[in-house]
Automatic annotation (TrEMBL):
Protein name, per record: LuxR C-terminal-related transcriptional regulator
Organism: Streptomyces massasporeus
Source superkingdom: Bacteria
Alphabetized Pfam families for the sequence: GerE, TrmB
Chain ranges of the HTH luxR-type domain: 256-321
InterPro entries linked to this entry: Sig_transdc_resp-reg_C-effctor, TrmB-like, Tscrpt_reg_LuxR_C, Tscrpt_reg_TrmB_N, WH-like_DNA-bd_sf, WH_DNA-bd_sf
Lineage, broadest ranks: Bacteria, Bacillati, Actinomycetota, Actinomycetes, Kitasatosporales
C-alpha cells in the first residue's frame, strides 16, 4: 500500500523498523530487516526526501522516524496538491486547444468550408454520399433523432448498393434506443458495418478518405459543420477513427465484464476519464450518461475497492492493475 506513496520496499522495511525500535542505528536496522548497511543508508536518504525521518534529539548522530499520522498524511496531502495542479494544467490545455480549433474554424480556405445550419449539412452529405466511390466512415456520438436518421437513409442504402464500404461508430448507450439499433441493423443487412464503444471521437463523416465533415461546435452540432479536404487533417481524423474502431464492439455482439476485475467497459472507461482529471459532469458527457449514473458507478467502484475516498480508490485501482 505504501508503495503508492512513492516508497520502495526497502524504505518501508527501514521505516517500520525505526518506528518499532527508535534507538537502533544503521547496523541494528540492517540486522532486523535483512538489508545491508548500504541499502539501509540508501533507504534513509529516500525517507529523508519524503520527510519521513529527521535527526534525533534523544540519540545524537541517529535519525528518528516521523510519526505516520504526520509524515504519511503530509505525503498524501502533497500528492493531492500535485494532482489538483495537474488537473488545472489539463483544464488549461483543453481550453487552449478549444480556442485554437475555434479560431481555425473561423477562417475559410481552399481546404475548408463552413456549412451553417442542418439544411446545408444535409445537402453536402447528400452530395458527398452520391459521389462516394469507395468508403464512407461515420462517427455518431450522442443520440440521433429518427428524423436525422431518416434524412440520410436513402442515400446510405444507395451508396451500399453501389458497393461503397460503410463503417459507422455509435456510442455504447445507443444500444438502448430501438430506432438507432433498427437503423444499424438495416445498414448491416445491406453490407455495412456498425460498432459501438463507451467513448468515441466527436461527430464526423469521412468520405473516400479525402473529404471530412465535423461540427463547428461539438456541443451544438446543429449550428453547422466544417467541410475539410486538407490531407493532414483528414489523415489525423482517420487515425483517430481507426483507434476507436479497433476497440469497439460490433452491433449485435456483447462484451462480458472483465473476469479479473468485474468492471464493465463503461466502468473501466469512467476510471480512465476520471484519472485524466475530468469532472463527473465532463466524464458523463463523454460517456453519454447522467451525473446521477456517474456518481452511482463511482460509488460502486469505491465499494468494490474498499476505498473511503476517490483518491484512495485511484491508488487501489492502480495497484490492482485496473488502470
Amino acid at each position: 500500500m505504501l508503495q503508492a506513496l512513492g516508497m520502495s520496499t526497502d524504505s518501508i522495511a527501514v521505516y517500520q523498523a525505526m518506528l518499532d525500535q527508535p534507538g537502533h542505528g544503521v547496523t541494528q536496522i540492517a540486522e532486523s530487516t535483512g538489508l545491508t548497511p548500504t541499502q539501509v543508508h540508501q533507504s534513509l536518504d529516500e525517507l529523508a526526501q519524503l520527510m519521513l525521518v529527521r535527526a534525533s534529539s534523544e540519540y545524537p548522530g541517529k535519525m528518528r522516524a516521523v510519526d505516520p499520522d504526520i509524515g504519511l498524511a503530509d505525503i498524501v496531502a502533497r500528492q493531492e496538491a500535485e494532482l489538483a495542479a495537474r488537473q488545472a494544467q489539463l483544464a488549461a490545455s483543453r481550453a487552449a486547444v478549444t480556442r485554437i480549433v475555434a479560431d481555425r474554424a473561423e477562417h475559410r480556405s481552399t481546404h475548408g468550408e463552413r456549412l451553417l445550419g442542418m439544411d446545408a449539412i444535409h445537402n453536402r452529405l447528400e452530395r458527398l454520399g452520391r459521389d462516394a466511390h469507395s468508403e464512407i466512415i461515420g462517427v455518431q456520438p450522442g443520440v440521433q433523432s429518427s428524423q436525422d436518421l431518416n434524412a440520410g437513409r436513402d442515400h446510405d442504402l444507395a451508396a451500399l448498393l453501389r458497393g461503397v464500404a460503410m463503417r459507422t461508430l455509435y456510442q455504447e448507450h445507443a444500444r438502448r434506443h430501438t430506432h438507432i439499433v433498427a437503423y444499424g441493423h438495416t445498414l448491416l443487412g445491406h453490407g455495412g458495418e456498425v460498432r459501438t464503444a463507451p467513448t468515441i471521437p466527436q461527430r464526423m463523416v469521412i468520405v473516400d478518405r479525402t473529404h471530412a465533415l465535423l461540427p463547428i461546435d461539438p456541443a451544438s452540432t446543429r449550428k453547422g459543420a466544417l467541410h475539410v479536404t486538407e490531407p493532414g487533417i483528414v489523415t489525423a481524423l482517420l487515425e483517430l477513427f481507426e483507434q476507436a474502431w479497433n476497440t469497439a464492439v460490433p452491433l449485435g455482439a456483447t462484451r462480458p465484464d472483465d473476469p479479473q476485475t468485474g468492471l464493465t467497459d463503461h466502468e473501466r472507461e469512467l476510471l480512465r476519464l476520471l484519472g485524466t482529471g475530468l469532472t463527473d459532469e465532463a466524464a458523463g458527457q463523454r460517456l453519454g450518461l447522467t451525473d446521477r449514473t456517474i456518481r452511482r458507478q463511482v460509488a460502486s467502484i469505491m465499494e468494490r475497492l474498499g476505498a473511503s475516498s476517490r483518491f484512495e480508490a485511484g491508488i487501489k485501482a492502480a495497484q490492482r492493475g485496473w488502470l
